[in-house]
Design a protein that fits this description.
2 copies of one chain form a homodimer. The model of chain A has no long low-confidence stretch (mean pLDDT 97). In chain A, the strands form 2 sheets. In chain A, strands 3-8-4-5-6-7 form a 6-stranded antiparallel beta sheet. The longest helix of chain A has 25 residues. In chain A, a hairpin with a 7-residue loop joins β1 and β2. In chain A, α1 packs across α4 and α4 packs across α6. The first copy, chain A, contains 8 helices and 8 strands, in the order αααββαααββαβββαβ. Chain A is 44% helix and 16% strand. The termini of chain A are far apart. Chain A folds into 3 domains: 59 residues, Arc Repressor Mutant, subunit A, CATH 1.10.10.10; 69 residues, Winged helix-like DNA-binding domain superfamily/Winged helix DNA-binding domain (Arc Repressor Mutant, subunit A), CATH 1.10.10.10; 74 residues, SH3 type barrels, CATH 2.30.30.90. In chain A, 31% of the residues are buried. The first copy, chain A, is an alpha+beta fold. The structure holds a DNA duplex (30 and 30 nucleotides).
Chain lengths: 216, 216
DNA sequence: AATTTTTGTTAGACTAATCTAACATTTTAG
DNA sequence: CTAAAATGTTAGATTAGTCTAACAAAAATT
């Protein structure tokens, strides 16, 4: 598979987990590649049995397409974990590099990284690392936004990996694993005042709270 | 620069250190890319000021071409070192993976690897790692082949990185840094009987001895 | 010095991945 | 339910990197 094909599969995989149906336009926007190009690549991948495609119908990954995409995402997330844990990168710096390294052709390279990291189950953003069959374990975390006053939860994952969001979380001194207690929710704008690890108080806008995924 | 362009520069750099003059045919053979393709790529790189090219004349890297090539080789060798020292690969397994990772676009990635390795000066094969300006320090090692009876030398580098040669050296239990004493040279075929680290005796064919680079 | 061989160049075709322009279908809205 | 808008498809052009075939120059050989 070419690097380009891998990127199409990965994008379709991500869109499929976020939306019920995925259109050519969705895929086109997500890759910032024009629709006719996407259209022809989709046909090509359909020919390879990775995408099931019928004219004017929503796009779907086949079983083998899902597996292939899962394996690429596995590589991506393993690499992100490696970059953070062994090369000292911040969680906001790793995406771009992992995008490149995920395409390296060497099973053993990724096996060794997996081993070096002691077989991690999540990446630095709390997203699950697919297993060696490309299978992802679904996480049913809740958005902090949905929590009520006085509830105590643990910060497990982020809903966005946008640079600006991750940097903000850093600035707020929040880390995965932190215990968050909801102290007060402003009725007007849903801003939350929270207590982190029983020590520091922070105010979180609704938009931030919506991207903080927690376990109760 | 594209991956392809980087590979042309690297190949030309290597050929230039091995030979006084490098022809289009040499480069073509070394890349296993047909001459007309090489010809047009050489023109392209000449247009970018990386190769100085005149019709029917030998090929030469410009200063900036040399620097660019040196920096790619630096990345390659840093990665090889990392693969051996931190991921447990054998020195015969790292070339192919390094060929891919050397093209990653991220200065910081390689800086961190350099730091993690504590700024190594040579790669796992004893080849020098170019500095941050792509400058290579010339090593004037001698071939073991050229040594005389009773001479004691240190194994510093290999003259070939062919898989089969590296595996053979492993099988002979030879490692970089070993002390080699020449016990006897067969007049007939120049086979050498050597003593390694004062302990194990080995017989080395002339071809092997020619690819063992030593410091006296 | 002339001829042959080797090396180098030019011209033109092919593939993968992209694009724009034009056309077609489906969905949405009045 | 038709017209407009949104989405999807087809056709054809473009670029990077490759190739083969044909031709040209330089080097080697006789």
């Amino acid at each position: 598979m070419t690097l380009t094909e891998e990127n199409y599969l990965k994008a379709l995989f991500h869109l499929s987990t976020e939306n019920e149906e995925v259109s050519v336009l969705d895929l086109s926007k997500s890759l910032t590649i024009k629709m006719p190009t996407v259209n022809s690549m989709v046909k090509k991948l359909s020919g390879k049995g990775l995408i099931s495609y019928e004219k004017y119908k929503p796009l779907m990954l086949t079983q083998s397409g899902k597996r292939a995409a899962g394996l690429i995402i596995r590589k991506h997330r393993l690499v992100e974990m490696f970059l953070v844990q062994h090369l000292g990168f911040g969680w906001d710096e790793v995406h771009e590099i992992a995008e490149q390294i995920e395409h390296i052709k060497s099973q053993r390279f990724f096996d060794r990284i997996d081993q070096l990291l002691d077989f991690p189950k999540v990446d630095p953003h709390g997203s699950p690392i697919p297993d060696i069959n490309g299978e992802v374990v679904f996480q049913n975390y809740k958005k902090l936004e949905e929590c009520v006053e006085n509830q105590m939860v643990m910060f497990m994952s982020v809903g966005s990996s946008q640079d600006s969001f991750l940097k903000l979380i850093d600035k707020l001194n929040l880390k995965l694993g932190d215990i968050i207690k909801v102290l007060e929710i402003q009725e007007f704008d849903k801003t939350m005042r929270v207590l982190v690890n029983e020590t520091s108080e922070q105010n979180l806008s609704q938009m931030v709270a919506a991207n903080i995924l927690v376990k109760t």
